[in-house]
Amino acid sequence: MELIKVTDHYAPAVALIELNRPKELNALNPQLMGELRDSLVRLDKDDTVRAIIITGNERAFAAGADIKQMADKSAIDMLVLDQFSTWDQIRKVKKPIIAAVSGFALGGGCELAMMCDMIVASETAQFGQPEIKIGTIPGAGGTQRLTRAVGKAKAMELILTGRFISAQEAHFYGLAIKVVPVEMYLQEAVTLAKEIAAMSPIAVQLAKEAVNRSFETHLDEGLTLERKNFYLTFASQDQKEGMAAFVEKRKPEFKGK
Ligand code: DAK
Q: Which of 18, 67, 101, 257 is deepest in the core (most CB within 10 A)?
């Protein structure tokens, strides 16, 4: 891995992926995205990992797709390159992913953060979809995920003006789950990841799938999936352990079985 750094066990059962093109503010080129996809697919299959954090550095989570590499591409070049298949594979990761964001999360960087399950932001984080300023529009889900996260009016404003919003605004609009001082954002994400990693990984996976489905389908179908996933948890030892531990007034020990 050249453009990302992966620590499989940064904390117990928690993997950390650091985007690592600092000079380019972590601009997302195909190589970086390929490395990210490969690592996520691998970690998704690793039973010793139960939660994943993606982060950048204090100055930038990622300032977008690499404009310099995209600038002179034709529509057919883009079609043949088919970078969307990489993004789609990332979207399909079953384990919980937390974005720990400091500095710029712009364009594809904001879209990557929104593809994660939760965003923890530092006070210095700035979010935006500035593609309009370079004559294009969001291409990796920004018009859909930002709108679902912050509502139509705010998303329209941000996407049509390219204006950035602060971490506080992102929190106010429900994009970031919390804002903490810059020296704490990674630790805060780790604390959250550890809390989730202590749960039944089976229940976490089924819950993530059900919550995500609420964005993709109508209520009836979403409720049907939720019910099936609920029933499915009763086929796990973890459900028996969780409920037995409650009755016996002790801490459960979930094995992912
Ligand atoms: N691409 C390439 N290089 C970038 C970059 C980017 N997105 N953002 C920053 N850099 C580079 C700068 O060119 C500069 O490089 P040098 O000049 O030093 O070689 C270096 O990073 C430092 O940046 P600045 O000197 O500009 O630093 P400032 O603090 O003055 O400004 C800034 C920071 C973030 C406000 C500014 O750099 C900026 O506006 N950056 C561009 C932000 C932007 O427009 N982002 C959206 C890009 S379009 C797709 C998936 C996704 C997408 C498309 C397709 N498929 C799956 C097909 C997404 C598209 C986008 O994200």
A: 101
